[in-house]
Amino acid sequence: QVQLVESGGGLVQAGGSLRLSCAASFSSYAMGWFRQTPGKERDFVAAMSWIGRSMYGDSVQGRFTVSRDNAKNTLYLYMNSLKPEDTAVYYCATSGRLTTLDHEYASWGQGTQVTVSS
Fold first, then answer.
1. pLDDT tens column, 20-32
2. CA-to-CA distance for 23 and 3, rounded, in angstroms?
3. What are phi and psi of 91, to 5 degrees?
4. Span 96-114, pLDDT tens digits
5. Rounded to an integer, what distance in angstroms lies between the CA atom of residue 39 and that of residue 58?
6. Rounded distance, CA 83 to CA 14, Å?
7. CB half-sphere exposure, 81, CA atoms < 13 A
8. Cβ distance 64 to 46 under 8 Å?
9. How would DSSP label each residue in the chain?
10. Is the dihedral of CA 58, 59, 63, 64 positive or negative?
11. What is the pLDDT tens value at each position of the chain, 118 positions in all?
C-alpha cells in the first residue's frame, strides 16, 4: 500500500494557476490525478507513467500539465487558466499501469481542495 499526501490546493481566481504536489511513500509505475465535487462522479484529470508518458482528461487538456520526480516519488499537477468548473477535491492515486480508469488505482490520497472563484 502506497501512502500519498497531496498539497498545494487553495483558492484562486479564474484564469489563475496552482501547482499541486503528491508525495508518495514509495514508487509506482503510474501516478494520476482525479477530482470530485459533491454529488458528482470522480473524473480523471491527468496521469503519468514512470517513463514519462502522460494522459489528460478532455476538460483539462491544454491547460494542465502533469510531471513527476521519480527520485522523490512525487507527482505534480500544474494547473493554468483555471476555471470555476475546475473547483473540486483533487486526489492523487497510484496504479500498475497508465490508465484513466479510477478502479485501476489502488492507493489514494485524502485529497486537496481547489476552489476557483468567479
1. 999 999 999 999 9
2. 8
3. -115, 140
4. 999 999 999 999 999 999 9
5. 21
6. 5
7. 7
8. yes
9. ---EEEE--EEEETT--EEEEEEESS--SEEEEEEE-TTS--EEEEEEETTS-EEE-TTTTTTEEEEEEGGGTEEEEEE-S--GGG-EEEEEEEESS--S-GGGEEEE---EEEEEE-
10. negative
11. 899 999 999 999 999 999 999 999 999 999 999 999 999 999 999 999 999 999 999 999 999 999 999 999 999 999 999 999 999 999 999 999 999 999 999 999 999 999 999 8
CA-nearest of 23, 16, 32 to 82 is 16
**At 95, which amino acid appears?**
S
Q: Which residue has the cell 502533469?
A: 66
